[in-house]
Design a protein that fits this description.
The complex is a heterodimer.
Chain A (H helix, E strand, L loop, with lengths): L17 E6 L4 E6 L3 H4 L5 E5 L2 E2 L3 E5 L5 E9 L5 E6 L22 E3 L5 E7 L6 E6 L3 H11 L25 E3 L11 H9 L3 E7 L9 H6 L4 E5 L1 H13 L3 E4 L1 H13 L7 E5 L14 E5 L6 H7 L6 H11 L10 E4 L2
Parallel strand pairs in A: 1-17, 3-12, 3-14, 4-11, 14-16
Antiparallel strand pairs in A: 1-2, 5-6, 6-7, 7-10, 8-9, 9-10, 12-13, 13-15, 16-17
Chain B lengths: L6 E5 L4 H10 L5 E6 L2 H13 L3 E6 L7 H12 L5 E4 L17 H29 L2 E6 L12 H20 L5 E6 L7 H6 L11 H14 L3
Helix pairs in contact in B: 1-2, 1-7, 3-4, 4-5
Chain lengths: 344, 226
């Protein structure tokens, strides 16, 4: 795979990337530059980031009769199998809903994903025959090697050029768990984090396997997000307790962090517990938050799945004002766009 | 720093100092990702590490290639977790046999820069974020006295090692206060294939075994933060 040099740089941050600050307590919306984020935080606040790296989750291959297909990996299971969504021929340039369906597969169907990677279907979802579990035939090290040799990041038709894997990593990406970039963290370049720390803001992390945001299958799309695994370090549980005790605000960087923290608390009687877990929590307008006080996220349109989660932080009519303000102000959506801080 | 359980990446691990370092780390409890181009030699070193009770995962990659950094950092994250230590040991002499700058071709000069400077820059960029987030990490740069002394005939290599050392200094300034440390190590003249390529006439008995330098690097890592 030969990539142009421009594809292999970190995701570019525009000089004047913008930050829309919504203060739900005061009911105000104010325009800022992302650079000003540390000044909007207070000593004692806690930022929690998702340090999952983005997987090379899109693989092209062939079905049992040589039919072309695309596999999008949607998370590794504790038993080493992979959840995956299958697509027919084509690539990201075609919107998912316009893609032809993949060949029908069943338990035991073998897929070829390149000369050095094979997979066997170990389970087919009852929701849709396009959602399957795969077991790679090669030992773990070889399978990872083949993934990194051949896989591409999942991307969508609104982009105009193929994204390299480097472009879809946050500055502090570590374990490759995410099917798509936990994009809120892209804005947190290291100097910005350092400035926040020097203001007395604490920073903690967890790992959450952010899943696919679109499958092209109406039934599956309606079921998104699927259950996702996470891991919360003991130090982060302690940092959250410390922030709550001193009156600091816990600010989730990205909706995946909200899902991990709130999902974990819901499953443990309101308390955070360290270690690995899986959450099927779907957060919407009526969700009562137990852990998270504020959210740093992208700019989300009303028809997006993230918007529902945003609404859990924005009492009406602030949600409507937010939408109008972002549109009138020319804020940019999508994962390489501007940011929103909801914090009061 | 505590090496037990620490995720460590060593480049150029199939022979010479890299292989010696991997073997030396085998008994520390470090979880190693070993990087080199030669898959057979690399697998052999990984096997040596496992025989000594260590954990090692070979990753076949050429650090000079643009895609290598993402592959190495990603596979390390998957196989051993967020890296705590990164050792930039892979190195290229440039033209072999060595020759004056006036006789050095573009390709040989660029190869030395790609392996000794650009590759380490990219791989560092791919892992320092997770180190800074965790408030701890060590990046070891294997250099040479050719970085500071202008030896005739060592142009491509000397320039690239001088650049590597300066790269480390600037990273260190930019990451001041994050807990990420940059260590430049000059291992001295070692009895390795690289040295034979550079100075075939040298008496091997006058050279240090790479194991001596490997012990020193491990010692330096242990002493970090004490």
């Amino acid at each position: 795979m030969k990539l142009a040099a421009a594809e292999l740089s970190p995701a570019p941050v525009r000089a004047a990337e913008r930050l829309l600050h919504v203060d739900p307590r005061a009911g105000t919306l104010t325009d800022h530059l992302l650079e000003e984020l540390p000044a909007l935080l207070r000593t004692g606040d806690l930022l929690v980031v998702n340090d999952a790296a983005t997987l090379p989750a899109s693989l092209v291959g062939t079905g049992p009769a040589g039919e072309p297909l695309e596999v999008r990996l949607a998370g590794e299971e504790p038993d080493g199998s992979w959840r995956a969504v299958l697509f027919g021929p084509g690539d990201w340039r075609t919107p998912t809903e316009s893609r032809p369906p993949p060949p029908l597969v069943e338990l035991g169907t073998a897929l070829r994903l390149g000369p050095d990677l094979g997979a066997v279907v170990s389970r087919v979802s009852g929701l849709s025959p396009r959602l399957v579990w795969l077991r790679f035939q090669e030992p773990r090290e070889q399978a990872w090697s083949a993934l990194y040799a051949r896989g591409r990041p999942v991307q969508y038709a609104y982009e105009t050029f193929p994204l390299s894997l480097d472009r879809v990593q946050t500055p502090y990406a570590a374990r490759p768990w995410a099917s798509e970039m936990p994009s809120a963290g892209r804005a947190l370049r290291l100097p910005l984090l350092a400035r926040a720390r020097s203001r007395g803001v604490e920073i903690a992390w967890l790992t959450h396997a952010a899943g696919l945001s679109s499958t092209g299958d109406a039934v599956l799309d309606a079921a998104l997000p699927l259950p996702e695994r996470y891991e919360i370090p003991a130090a982060t549980v302690a940092a959250v307790a410390g922030a709550h005790a001193r009156g600091g605000r816990v600010v989730a960087v990205g909706t995946t962090v909200v899902r991990a923290l709130e999902g974990c608390a819901r499953d443990h009687g309101g308390d955070l517990v360290s270690g690995p877990g899986v959450t099927d929590l779907r957060i919407g307008r009526d969700h009562v938050r137990r852990v998270v006080g504020g959210l740093l996220s992208g700019i989300h349109a009303r028809d997006s799945s993230h918007y529902e989660l945003l609404a859990a932080f924005l009492p009406s009519p602030l949600d409507l004002l937010y939408t109008l303000h972002a549109a009138a102000g020319g804020y940019r959506g999508h994962e390489f766009g501007d940011s929103t801080l909801i914090l009061g | 720093m505590e090496l037990r359980g620490a995720a460590v990446i060593v480049t150029g691990a199939s022979r010479g100092l890299g292989a010696a370092l991997a073997r030396e780390l085998a008994t520390t409890g470090a979880r190693q990702v070993l990087v080199a181009r030669d898959s057979q030699a690399l697998e052999q070193v990984a096997e040596d590490v496992r025989r000594r009770g260590g954990e090692a995962h070979p990753v076949v990659a050429d650090v000079a290639q643009p895609e290598a950094a993402g592959r190495i950092a990603g596979m390390a994250g998957a196989l051993v977790g967020p890296p705590a230590v990164l050792v930039h040991n892979a190195g290229s002499l440039g033209p072999v046999p060595l020759r004056p700058l006036a006789d050095t071709g573009d390709a040989a000069f660029e190869e030395a820069m790609a392996t000794n400077v650009v590759g380490p820059f990219r791989l560092t960029r791919a892992v320092v974020g997770t180190m800074a987030l965790r408030g701890q990490g060590a990046v070891v740069l294997i250099s040479s006295d050719a970085a500071t002394t202008a030896y005739p005939g060592w142009g491509a290599y000397g320039v690239s090692k001088a650049a590597l050392e300066h790269l480390g200094r600037i990273w260190q300034e930019e990451l001041a206060g994050t807990g990420v440390r940059f260590l430049t190590v000059d291992p001295g003249e070692m009895d390795t294939r690289m040295h034979r390529d550079a100075a075939p006439e040298a008496d091997p008995t006058s050279l240090l075994p790479p194991e001596t330098a490997a012990v020193r690097v491990v010692q330096l890592l242990r002493e970090l933060g004490q």
